[in-house]
Every structure is written in C-alpha cells, then in structure tokens.
Predict the 3D structure of the following.
Amino acid sequence: MFRISDLIDLPILTLMQENSLRINVKSILLDGFNNRIAAIICKEGTLKKSYKIIPYEKIIAIDTNGIIISDLHCIEKLRDKEINEFLQLGAVINKIVKSSNGDLYGILTDIYINLLNGKITAYELSEGYLDDLVNGRRIINISENLNNTLVNKEIILYQMLN
C-alpha cells in the first residue's frame, strides 16, 4: 500500500531522460465511481501556471524518486471536463466518513492505493489529535471490509460487511 499524499510534489521522469523534467505532481484526480486514481495533475516549471494531467494508465512506474512515464506525449492539457468528471484529492481529504446508517467513523486523512492499477485499497481515518496519539490512526481496508463505497465532495459513505 502506498499513501496517496506521498505522490504530491514527486517529479515526473521519462525513460529517455535521467533527470527531472521540472514538472511536479500538484494534485490527484480521483474516480470515485471506480475507486481509483484517474490521473495526476502536474505543474510545469516554477513561474508558469501551466497545469497538465497524466492519465494513470500512461504511468509506467511510481517510486519514492518520482513518477516515470514513457515520454512527453503522455502529458495532456487539463480540461474542464476532467475537473468536473473527477474529484480532486483536496475535495475529499479532511471530510467526514460515515456509514450508510449515519455512524461517524472519523475524518479522512489519507488514501492508500495499489501502485500497479491505481485502485484505492484503504482509507486512513482520524478520530481527533488525542485519539491519534493514544491509539493511532485507523486504517479501513476497502477490499476486506467494504461492500459499497461512494466518494463525493461532501462525505464518504461506506457500508460494512456483516
């Protein structure tokens, strides 16, 4: 499992160039319907405000050194369609997580993913600073514990298996 927040600020690398393209990850687009990463949003340079996306299918590998793509053709313009169709990471982090019955489980602090396919594998929840210090943060594995997951801009609902 890889924390989705660890992707932020990683450099984009190509197979042909060993050094960074001066393009870094700025945000993530989530496909809440399929529970996966749709694309990463990146920013080119430091002065220009030129945002682009890389669809997750075009990513070859991800590690702690960066995100590897085959070439610059994998980088696409960011269109309003992507912004409206998918959720940005910032829209779901720090949102309340409840069961379909309305039971409060905590605040979403991070999302764990499978690097091979971009699927969301777990949610990291906080129940407050004191509880985090005493008990640690709670991890809910989607594959084991969740029957149905719905992500939207206001709340994350999930239904526990009985």
About this structure: Residues 97 and 156 are 5 Å apart (CA to CA).
